[in-house]
Fold each of these.
Amino acid sequence: MKTPLEELACLYVLDQLEEQKRAEFEERLLRDPAAVALVREAEAGLARRIHELPPREPPVGLLGRIEQRLDQRTTGAPPAHARGIAPWAAIARWGLAAAIVVGLGAIAIQLWQRNRAATDRPVVIVVGLDQGRNALAELPLAGSPASADARFIQLASLAERYWDKPGDLPVKMNSPGAGGRGYALFDPGSNQGFIAVQQLPAVEPGQRYHLWILDAASGQVREAGVLPLAGSSRGLYFFSVAPAAGPKSGRLDFLVTVENAAEPDATRPRGRVVLGDRGI
Amino acid sequence: MIPPGPNDSAIAEEIALLAQAGAGDRDAFRRVYARYSGPLFALAVRLVGDPGDAEELLQDAFVKIWRNAAAYDARKSRPFTWVVTILRRTCIDHLRKRRRAPVTTPMPDGAGAPPDVAGADAVRLAVDNDDEADRLRGALAEIPPGQRSALELALFSDLTHAEIARRLEQPPGTVKSWIRRGLLGLRATLNNSAP
């Protein structure tokens, strides 16, 4: 496919766009998965080319000198960005990014929130996913972190830990070889999470995996993104969703479906459920 | 298609590290340094030529990474692309201030536009060429010379694509197309040759 969009993506990755065009393209990245996919391709080429350069080790002690400069700049105060950026905004950006970048799949989780505001007693919902069912657990966030940054860090650390050591998961998974399976971590306070999937069946051309979250009480459906599993059957991804409208219910359901890629802006799952509770 | 698979977990970790560094976590920043300092130093040396200058610019870049980590937006780029952009801008500012001749990169097999280098840059590029020629011959050989020239100039010089067009005596539209096909073609070639 040779389109101007490909050109824009490559020039963007190479930092060859003028300021206004760069800003316009970044706006497009927020709403156009096709542009994101092309940027990812171009980024892969950039990374490979740079890693092919003759290897050079930075001088010993360079990190120490950098830290000295940081200490001189930040004595008595945190980094400027830590003071000036709204943590929630940053977290929301990462989560949304994940939803765009990540992509596709179908996972279904069920969870009970026990009638409390997540921010009062922050928890992470851990959901084991396989074909046709979910298994749920709740983990309290250590130290009841108030800041979104701290919550995100705990969430990311947990996701990484379970990815490396699935035996640590607090929910039981299907044994290997029993079809698609995975797990999801979700912070209902920040509406973001991670999902790990493996052994999903290959999608046909023109199809893709979608991740959804449904509020069982209100019937509200929230799309959490498209899982970019092309060429692979496994991966670990971020996702995030818009806050639920109206009062919180006690139960959320997650699922991954196979959807027709030609249908723009799907708002409800229509395709086959490949992960999660099929009865949802 | 979007690169799938195992690297996604590494990218997730890198995003998390930048988030932690952005919140003021010095340990996370050290891990960011450990991951990126090698390739960024190699890139800085390629861009500015002098290892001493490259070291100073790498310092400047990591200070900027620390100070701007909280503003990193994963929707717009991968972490590696983001740090590369910071370093390249730092190096390009340096090159333009010093009014040095822009660095260009020779093609591994000698095809395509001849490099426009002089003095110390020529020495450095000759050395790099020895190191890289074999490594990249397979990867780049399948990319037509014009695409290679345009891509390497876009990556390793301070030229805009309009300036690259003038350098290569081609219409800007042609050069943009060459850059696109070169970058995407390089990725495809490297993927195909990967073990």
Note: Chain B has one domain: 8-109+130-192.
Amino acid sequence: MGYYTPDTVPDALEVLRQGDATIIAGCTDYFPNQGDICAPTKLLDISRVAGLRAVSQTTDGWTIGAATTWSDVINADLPRAFDGLKMAAREVGSVQIQNAGTLVGNLCNASPAADGVPPLLTLGAELEVISLRGSRRVPLVDFITGVRQIDMARDEMVVAIHIPAPENAPRGYFLKLGARKYLVISIAMVSTLVALDAGGRITCARVAVGACSAVARRPGALEVALIGQTVDQLMGDPGIWTRHLAPLAPISDVRGSADYRQEIAGELCKRAVMGAIQ
Amino acid sequence: MTNAIPSDQIGFTLNHTSVSANSPPGERLSETLREQMGQRDVKIGCNAGDCGACTVLVDGDPVCACLTPTHRVAGRQVETLTGLVGYDDSAKALSESFLDQGAAQCGICTPGMIVSAVALLRATPDPDEEQVKDAIGGVLCRCTGYRKIIDAVLQAGTSKVTAGADGSGKVGSGKTGSGKVGSGIRHLDGPAKVRGTLAFGDDVAPPGTLVLKVIRSPFARAAFALGDLDLFVATTDGIKATLTAADVPGDNCFGAIPAFVDQPVFAEHETRFRGEAVAAVIGTPEAMRAFDPESFPVDWHQLASVAEVDAAMANDAPQLHTGRDGNEMCKGFVLCGNVDQALEQADIFVEGHFTTGFVEHGYIEPEAGYATFENGKVTVHACTQAPVMDRDALEAILGLHADQIRIVPTAVGGGFGSKLDISVQPFLALGAMKTGHPVRITYTRRETMQSTTKRHPAEMTVKIGAMKDGRLSGLRFDGVFNTGAYASWGPTVATRVPIHASGPYRIADYRAQARAIHTHNPPSGAFRGFGVPQAAIAQEALFDQLAAKLAMDPLEFRILNALDNHQPTVCGQVFEQGVGIRACLKALRPAWAEHNAKIAEFNAQTTGPLRRGVGIAAGWYGCGNTSLANPSTILAGLRVDGTIVLHQGAMDVGQGANTVIAQIFAQAFGVPVAQLTLLGPDTDITPDAGKTSASRQTFVTGNAARLTGEALRARILSMCNASPEATLEVGPGVVKVLDDGHSHQIDLNKLEPNAMGYVLHAEETYDPPTKPLDHNGQGVPYAQFGYAAHLCVVEVDTALGTVKPLHFSAAHDVGQAINPLLVEGQVQGGIAQGLGMALMEEYLPGRTENLHDYLMPTAGDMPRVETIIVEVPDAHGPYGAKGLGEHVLIPTAPAILNAIHNACGARITRLPATPARVHAAIKGLTI
């Protein structure tokens, strides 16, 4: 029992070492998961840990602290590679959710429809996971291991997302498909990161598709196929968007059928790549 | 350990005042604010961040209080609506603009809306519409359709927008004037809504009141055995009592329709739907906060169940109720002419099968209330649409006399039909009687979605014929309605559908049947339109197909066949006046021409996947009960001090009865509406004004108010032999009667007050004239119908299957708009519900029992609405007025479906038209 609000990371880790604590930050997933019961519990609130609520530039990239909210990201001055992440942030729930919910919480909740995962996959994000035993860096692609499953021990916590400095000034883009505006869980979503050379040829193409597999995926074959293409060439090859989506394994649920998700994923990829270019 | 915040002294600033809370770890700020700080203006609609009703500002940022641990705000600034309206200029401006625009209907979302808007206006004093939508997009409203809220925020930001910005030129400034009939005055009960002081179902119990929770079936059908409940109570801290069927002193049975009463308060041997109550637990608030229903001693044994009507009608299906063979509860039937012959002789015909699903009412206020038992009398304070029906039901359940039961309705945070049925009332009454203490309950969002009524899913097969000249030649309708586990208002749906399935058209040869079939689902009951919206989907879609086959313009095809005065309806009822459908359809001609032209231009210029389309549909709805008495009574009195008291028993669930009934009475009596004092509803002090359903309050209770006002006026005039044209001035102790230059004074001090303290009073009743229907449904089901026609413009993304409504024009014949501002509000709110039904809403037991899997429209989904108020007066209506509440929803969904077809050629026959279904339908076209 207790509500712990440590000021420092070591203090937070000490609470974790003692066991049975639930880490909370924005609580936008914590409370819905609790249902309507308020049972005695031990909570570790990391929102007051010094330095965790910040978006900062480092020598080799960018760091987003574990208590950083979606609104913080929207308001941060970031290069255009982060446009997709910002677009995703604006599509998270509502202003109320964006003001409370954190990016790291979104990753740790590990929903297949987590809005933060596709843009952070395209940005090559790594998570800094620490405990009193030590610190390690885990690529996001390895951190989320399945539906609601992450590579984090009970005495560990994520303190930051590290994003390497984007090369060639690529531009990020994000598209979310839902059955309504605001407060909507994605049927599918795509985030892209694209750079062109002076001749209009794609030199960097990263594509991540969410809500179409247990964990958001980057269809590598599509990314490879896009390299060197111009907009005109892409317009002349509509099949390119669907040929390379084998890694996706969508399911049917109340939001849409598996067939539908598979069929529209290509269209969303196309629009998200074109959106990043234009 | 360092840095553990002591739970008994969580200090923060609340509305500029320092406070200290004592909350266990993990308590939600919403709970603390409501129960410890008395901030009942912070509303709880979902406890999951899905509705935004609990929005507060923490250090200036809007957040959901239900997602904020109380400990989190230690040392921070928390602001809520009641504080903000006292000191914040934006909040003050918003509270005024919300009243001007009629932006608060039921008022349950209003605190969340205004608090969200305050944050916007502090950062962006002059926002545009998109910024307003972004700011309020996280707050759900089920009443208004958002447009008036958007306009109110724009008005507060710039003072540029005035009431009626969405269309009708009739709407005035939205200020309180004399309130004469036809003036768009503010809601009379609006100020408490915009200041957060109105008390809803969960807002009346004092802190510390015993809390009741219901134990519900986890299975659609299950046998169960209760454990040792005495032991459970004795061994569980804080638990005071349990309730089961054995605790029901009267009949463990209730229902809306006397001949179909079949629903137990607590199931006795077997449950018939997931979420059905089998017991209740009563305990201290502290104990019940942590109480896990899983810990209740009950053993479940899941049994085979039927979810769909086809399975329920199969020979080997489990039977839900004895005496209802084949699980058929009842059927409704209307026959006129010779439909087989007419269809055979028709030059062309179309036919189709249409499917709709369960739709959730989605009011933001879950059922809630509070009851006391003192001196042998039970008093229930709860949200309801039908206080007298609640009392009647409790009489039977509790085995008490009517005078031992008092129903004092709280404000109602939306109803739309579901709060016609009793829900929390028997639990509360039984709990108060058993414990001898006051008891409260608030349904969780999951409970309200699991256990209260839904719109009937429908399977409809329809065939319609026409001659080459466009005249209709026969319509056959066969509908099977999934009525769930218990009757509720299913019989009403079965009765209403065949009467209305013709649409508002002249059809001489007609055969319509609607069957209500039991399944192991929550009871389907009353929901805005009683099955008529489902029937309109089938009929109006097929009308477009008929027009296409005839190469006729869809609007002109409808105008050609529109019902008119002197023509019989399919029930053989002939109106000599008041039929307004043709006027509604004709009113759409300019918008129809304009949007067809615009769309043709757009589609010609667009090369991508976007295609626009326009669709129309019409509807009608009989106001009041079907061929049954449904009287309303209004009482008014004059106190010696000149106070004019209106005993207003018509439940205002946001639609505006408190305002409209008062306007009618004031007009009939001859005083400004601002001079009235309203009392009630309260079964001890207000006569029965019937239930708020069937679009009957403006019509039926309005007539009672008119008659009462006229009677009171006549008494005063007769006291001084004044003429009917005389004017009244009611003041302290005196009534001045000015008549043709003469002034009479009636000294109220000289009159003897009655037991209620009135020196003069009147009480009048109105019951609409109807006649029974025969075995072919022929007769006089309603004294009046109201009429409607909607036009919708949509944009379809043909590659993704998404549909975005861009515009509505809605023509409604209301006879006489008592208050045009409120008419607009009803129209826009109804359209939002129709939009949801068409595009996104489907309740699936066990799967969409929350407001993030069950999607309702947000502020970002509702386009502008042009409201066209058509006034074809009705001889029976007060000042010619007709009902409106259900009509606003009926044409919306078919207009959207017709627009989708117009845009991309896809015909959607299964609702909702989700992106996946629309995509599949489009794909089907191209294969």
Note: The first strand of chain B starts at residue 10 and ends at 14.
Amino acid sequence: MEKQKYRVRFLLLSVASILIFFGSFALGRYRISVSETVGILSDALIRLVSGNSLTLPESMRGWSIEAQTIVLNVRLPRIACAALVGAALSVAGASFQGMFRNPMVSPDLLGASTGAGFGASLAIFIGASYYTITFFAFLSGLAAVMLTYMISRLSRIKTTLALVLSGIVVGSLFQSGTSFIKLVADQNNQLPAITYWLMGSLSSVKNRDFLLAFGPILVGLVPIILLRWRINLLTVSESEARSMGIDTSKLRFAVIVCATLITSASVAISGMIGWIGLVIPHICRLLYGQDYRRLIPASAISGAAFLMLTDNLARTVATSEIPLGILTSLIGAPVFIALIVKGGSGNEA
Amino acid sequence: MKLEVKDLSFSYGLRSARPQSFGDQKVLNGVSFSAGDGEIIFFLGPNGVGKSTLFKCMLGFLKPQGGEVLINGKNALSYRRQDLSKILAYIPQSYSPVFNHTVLDSVLMGVTSQLGVFEMPGKEHVEKALEVMKELGIEHLSDRGSMKISGGERQLMLLARAMVQDASLFVMDEMAANLDFGNSFRVMQRVLQLRDKGYTMLISTHNPDHAFRYASRVIAMKDGELLADGKPEDVLTEEVMESLYSIDVAVNTVNVGKSQYKVCTPVF
């Protein structure tokens, strides 16, 4: 009966996510109905699959060119990126939490986000193009985590504690680098651009961004999904896991690499969006239990739905865009406080 | 299953994270013994005498400086982790999960070494786990959270996990140390039941009365060496106990009906 309960919840979650995806197209200053959205999207899909030789029949094409442009070039990349980044950060968070045996760990623990933030700031400072910024952010995020990893290997205490402490040090190093760039940046256009980027936003993403991030995120996501049963064994003590036949250092390394790849690629297109990797897995633990076989897919879908919803708020609540990072903090902080006060995570079964 | 420990020596190097006081002093010095099917061997000795280190060498976590551990004739260090886990299971003193996995999922973790890297436990593994849990009388806990059960139930859960792992030799580090009087009795009853099925258990303990009641053999350790090895009543004498713990000890026989029990008590 437990299984039945989870199955129903998965079904509801999936249906809700699909509704949120299509519903999100209807939001915005330019009114586009859900049926128009479905038409435009399926038309685009048919053209993409058939290599532009087929389209929807004329009788079904009742939308304007403006609507088509807005749906395909403005709203689609934004909604798709929100779903992708939300899913990615949630899965990375859940993986890191299992690996560090701590429900309060977030995906940027090892410095991926601050590293990416520094890379992006640097790129904006040297006046790089939009895609170079993304690329810089990605590389710098990876570099930060590699640095963290190497420092922890040098440490005499070869435990996860060494990794966490190195992560804090490397994070603050990159943080001060970012601060320095902000200090010397041109105050009229560079500084606002950096500040805005660091707050996290999807307002300027294009279809190419989605494709850019999709590859690395997929490369990181697939192994985690395949290895998700084994992540359970990282949550018990090191010696127990090893006695059960797991090569913990290899598994841990694989999870770190994948989760970092995911995080860096996400931050590269969306900027710094905090809290999702902490909040979504936590809620999923409450609803779907602690087993990573369910937790990973549940986190992915919930994270996608959550960020699509949050981004809808970000672009519709006020007349000007609200950076996503601000909204996710508003939601995330209370959840984190509840976590500290209760001192656990979804442990009431 | 045959376990042979031959002339095992181990010391924590100066460069390790251990307290400096250990220095290069040998934690294990020429330890030899062997164990076969259906034995329950209790290890007794003061704190820091090397019981845990000995267990870690057997499990292949530590590399001894001298001697070797042979499991079915093959050095423990030359096994692949995956293969060793099908012979040897480890049951820690206390299970402190961070996440509240269900009891069934916790037991299922034991089957992982029988799965491919990307494989999930299937129906047959769940059935196997439930069967083992039934044998240990904990099948009603399967959907409960592993954090929300009693210490005794948790130890039984770990026994079940070791059993689905297909191991036949269980290494238990002070498995009853954190249990209350009743729970430690209930867990030990299950241990006896497993011995009768041919499982071998190596258990470290600080409780000589447990050794009297449940051991088929007792090994007393002092200063990294074996002080005595044999039947409980031969090893757990007043002299050995006094030598181990440096306190005056009386070993007496208690008569309950027709049964006789040996007990050990400090004298002051």
Note: The interface with chain A takes residues 15, 17, 56, 59, 61, 81-86, 88-90, 92, 95-102, 105-106, 109-110, 112-113, 115, 117-121, 143-145, 147-148, 161, 165 of chain B (CB under 8 Å).
Amino acid sequence: MMETNDMPYQPAEDPDLTAYALGELDAEQSKKVEAKLGDDARAREFVDQVRQTASVVASELKNEQAPGLTSQHHRVIESAMQRGDRTQRTLRRVRVICLALAAIILLAVSVGLFLPGLGAARYSASPAVPDASRFSYNSLGAPAPYGDALHEPTETVPSAVSPGNRNNLNSNAATNAERNSRLKDLGYVVEEHNNRVAGTPTDHVTMGDMTTLFDGEQLVGAPDPGAAFNTDTFDKIKDNSFKRATDHPLSTFSIDVDTASYAIIRRFLNRNHRAPPRGAVRIEEMINYFRYDYTQPAGDDPFSVNVEIAGCPWAFKHRLVRIGLRGRRVEQDVRPSANLVFLIDVSGSMRSPDKLDLLKRSMKLLVNELDGDDRIAIVVYASATGLAIPSTSMDRKQTVLHALDQLAAGGSTNGGAGIELAYKVAAEHFIEGGINRVILATDGDFNVGVTSQSKLVRMIETKRRSGVFLSVLGFGQGNLKDSTMEKLADKGNGNYAYIDSLDEGRKVLVEQMGGTLITIAKDVKIQVEFNPANVAAYRLIGYENRLLAKEDFNDDAKDAGEIGSGHTVTALYEVVPPGIEVPVAAVDELRYERPAKEKKPHRKSETAHGDELMTIKLRYKQPDAERSRLMRTHVSDPGTGYAQATSDFKFSAAVAAFGMILRDSPYRGTATYGAVAELAEEGIGEDKGGYRRQFVDLVLKARSVDNR
Amino acid sequence: MSLMDTSSRDGLWLRSAVDHYERGLTLYASRLLGDPDRALDVVQETFCRLCRQRRQDIEDHMAQWLFAVCRNIALDVMRKESRMKPLTDTRIASEEAAGPSPSQAMEQRDRESQVLNAIASLPTRQQEIVRMKFQHGLSYRQISEVTKDSVSNVGYLLHHALKSLREQLNTDPARPVRS
């Protein structure tokens, strides 16, 4: 920092350069350092060296295995959490109102602690708490009965750490204090939760706290209340609401064949034993994870349209409309040659058995499926970007397999430069009429190289025009940039899958290779026109981030989803028949209008196509075309009951209901985990590959960890 | 309708914090104490204390809060037990990522242990700061809040630590990524 006057400037003695190299300086300080760098080559060299050393040190240190806490430790923390929870809700008020009382109780509880047996006894002897209030308290998330909570610390807090015991006393004191004011408090908490309306100024802090904690939707951009600490990033999703057919006869959206959400939900439930953040639940991706037995397209059409209507299982007066598309299947042996460029994140964060290792194993499965006309290149990116394997013909599979073995993780990520290089390689080996695709495999942690998400998305958008498509494969957890990855795939004419196991790798890269790699039609949009004579209101389930304005449907410049070989895409509409009350959520938008039933029914529909429920219009482009084509289907409701529906229908309804529960949707109606499992069981059908069975197991797992 | 609602709602931020920081803290505490078992108890206590905090009071400085509390408890334990052991360089069992060929794997192991040895040769305080910065990703400011050093002092220590590391490792710029 301080060079003496007689000595020339020594970069190696200037801590500011190190701080600059590590990105620790603010804008102003950085400018000063940059001025120094401008006229001192040695200083520049020094900064480079610092970065190199830092990157080596960081990548080696990140590889160090940490000893994990034991389940015993976790149990202690868990019970502290639950005590903490209760403490949080009342402690603040208690502190103010009855400090002295708390002190007395503290004494009482400390006695209780030394005599653990008394905990339970005292509980049963404490003033009777009406069952109803216990019930509602529990429904708000109260932990185990108090007796247990009192027992826990004496049994499990290791004596080696004495401060813990002292502090546990504090939280028990609060628990006890809370017990005294529980009834009053209960009503209060319930009210806060339901109304989310600020009360008196003194309550305000608590209430803000409560709404933040309880209402995921308050947290724009971070629906998971814990997202601030777990760096997995999920965008907020708000359920589509009911729309009245008289006011909004048109519903327009882009198809989506992504499946990542289901695998992410599975990871949360099976590995983390908890419900996923709501933002991770994209119902359309859950439904589309499964295959449905739709008819093969006829003639030249790239896909078939299959509609089924039956009773809605979670709202018995409503109808459920299922629109299913099925892409023409291109057989493996007649598929065009492939020019694939794998763009692999080998940054330090990928060094994990469920990331790079899993990717390598999944890729080997794919390589084994390819043949002599296909080519693969592998670009890796981390602190630096490099071509690990130049585009290689699949005559020489061994070369690729060997090179895959050699990949190891280390360094930090610069996704941007990697994407540039990958598209360049893909363009150099472009196969006319073939499959040209960049496959990005990452945990999504683009953390170096100032690649803002919007910049990346723009870059991908320009690349799309080159005719090279993009697939995004997500791996791992704790760092997953779910929203970035979905957007990238969306903008890059591509698809996004999340791979959490070798089975999933096989499903995505081998079984569905056709679909994942071969695009049958692009910019596929659906527009449904509802007939107000037969539809009071409707609601599109899922596809929240795929909605389009009605004008976009006929606008060929508007990008939309792709459908691949053999892919099926399913959309569900929940329809409220005329004469049935429209669920409350629709009330807002109709505030200053007369209710629909007072209006005269749409004359034209009544006279011209009286029995029709709706018209489904589809627009799509051939993969290499710029102009779209239109398909149109008119649909009437045959009045089928739910029981008579096909197993595919039942199963997709079960998946949708599962999503709504996980998302705590206001439209979930009577859906419960138990009911969903039953419905799915009824719809299990042939179940090739056992995916539906696995779904039933997952629902049961959800019930055991979440039990909403 | 059950007990577990806690997990999906207000308990979630705590759970996420545990998920996210568990490994980092156990590693950090192990280094401080030179004893993984004791380290786990310290980390457990750190999280228990976290449970008693109000989320809004600490969420904007969660990392440094956790590391500072963990450090204080660890120092407390060491003081109490009068076993101020220096940091040891016992390497905690490391799983070698499957993949590299034997010779490569060995090369990689060599380089890793070279880096770790180099770190272990630094003065204790520098080791701690190097780990906080490069293993746990804390910024100068966060580190200064944990160790109560000034930010410029942290910068000074890290600058010298990196200098010694560079000299020992003689970093080869081509190495970090296979290409």
Note: Chain A touches chain B through 105 residues (CB under 8 Å).
